[in-house]
Amino acid sequence: MTRPARLLALVLVAAPLAGAPFAGGAARAQAAADAPAEAGGAALGAAERAALGIETDAGAALYAQGRADALAFRLDDARRAFRRLGELEPRSTAGAYGLESAALWASLAAEDDAALDRFYVLNDSLADLADRASTPAGRLAAATARLHRAIAMGRQERYARAGLAFRDACGRFRDLDAAVGPDADFGRGVCEVAAGAIPRQYRFLARLLGFSGSVAGGLERLDAAGRGGGALAAESVIGLAISDATLNERRGGGVARVEALADAHPDSPLVAYLEGYLLLLDRRAEDAEAAFRRARAALDAPGVTDIPLVDANLGVALFRQDRFDEARELLEAFVRTYRGPSLVAQSTLMAGIAAEMSGDRRGAEALYRRVRARRDYDSDVSAEREAERRLEAPMTASERALLLGQNAFDAGRYEDAVRVLQPIVTGADLPALDRAEAAYRTGRAYQATEQWADALRHFKLAIDNPGDPLAKWGPWALYHTGEVYEAEGQTAEAREAYEGVLDNETEFDYHKSLEQRTRAALERLGR
């Protein structure tokens, strides 16, 4: 599972985030106009009450309060509200669903197996209660319970069991009737996005399990669910935003939607964290830093459950602004205290690079030696490989310039990126690997500013001489070549480039992530 897939999974299990429909266009202003009311005790709409099976006004008020507390990550308070709801309306699945969701969030925020064990108990209870119900709300809860179970098992790398649970969930969502309302499209959208994004090496298993669908089709369903006003509307919008950012090159305006959601809920550390993550993907490092700092301030309030990954991502935002000492301090603190595997290898590597950029080669070497791929994820494996390479010798002047050029691009300073990287592209006496990276990153900067001819020229340099068959520069340059052709309306040339990417079976850096993106791109072209 790639990092985007993990984050998408984390997002989609949010204990009801904002409840009210969150529709909107690509522009932030329009998204803000459509944003839900503040969730602190806001009343449920009729569609939400029906989807949740809540019968009384008192029950609806308790659910709204639990939802508001969950959004603020006051998970203990949320649990109390959901328990009271369960006592008030024992036939409804709403209280059990809230408790189960809060348990899953608590476990995933800290990657704690003991907390996951508690989740499984509540998940079994929800599934049993939902299976006994003969209402549309019960059938929706039963399907959602199976989806949550699949996510939890996937996070524990219990992939066979996760696949079975996911198949069960997708089948249940597929069979939901019109009485369930728009929330059926939430689960169907998740299933289609997942099916369309499965890497090649797992597709045979997906076919055996009966998974089918496309990223484009899944995005359409998530969009419909997000606009539909059901109980899972906000989860649908956030799932759409994450999928749009990681698989659709942000073409659907997902970043603006989550920014508007953050504006509507300024005290939510969860939404601020998701906003910061998306802003990093959107190459807006300063804005991402501000979002992560809002998340950290909210997490420091009494009674709020921590989200440790906020600090790791804040470190990334600082690193991209060349604030290496600050980044190193945060990243090292995260690695030192965090008990889960997520982001540890990447954060340790980045802390080492920050140390070396600040002149501390000895400290950098100590950090490089600690980088270990604890899972078979693109990001972990590539981090370990790069750490081993950096241990061989101190940074050269060209490697420092490459790092500064990369940061300039990742922070949206495209002219600075070209200025810093161009001397490396033309440096005939420099290593081929450095020149390939510089050509690739220069091409990306030109692509971002729609200077198509310059972008294609630099991508071709990286494709023709990548410097290392396991480096990402050649294959990813070919993918972005396809994007340039697609932007120019040259569909045949774009398709040829994308198909060339899929023809490459070498396990180069980030090959799984590239395959996911490329398949989504071919779907856009109507393959």
Features:
disordered N terminus; 28 helices; single chain; signal; globular; TPR_rpt; Tetratricopeptide repeat protein; TPR-like_helical_dom_sf; mainly alpha
Structural class category: mainly alpha
Averaged pLDDT: 86
The number of helical elements comes to: 28
The tally of beta strands, per DSSP, is 0
Cα Rg: 23 Å
Commentary on this structure:
With 527 residues, this protein is mainly α. It contains 28 helices and no strands. The radius of gyration is 23 Å and the shape is globular. 58% of the residues are buried. Residues 1-41 have low confidence and may be disordered. Keywords: Signal. This is Tetratricopeptide repeat protein. Residues 1-23 form the signal peptide.
Summarize the model shown.
The chain has helices at residues 3-12, 28-33, 46-52, 57-71, 75-88, 94-110, 113-132, 136-155, 159-175, 183-197, 203-209, 215-227, 233-247, 254-264, 269-281, 285-299, 309-320, 324-337, 344-357, 361-369, 378-391, 397-410, 414-425, 432-448, 452-464, 473-487, 491-503, 511-524.
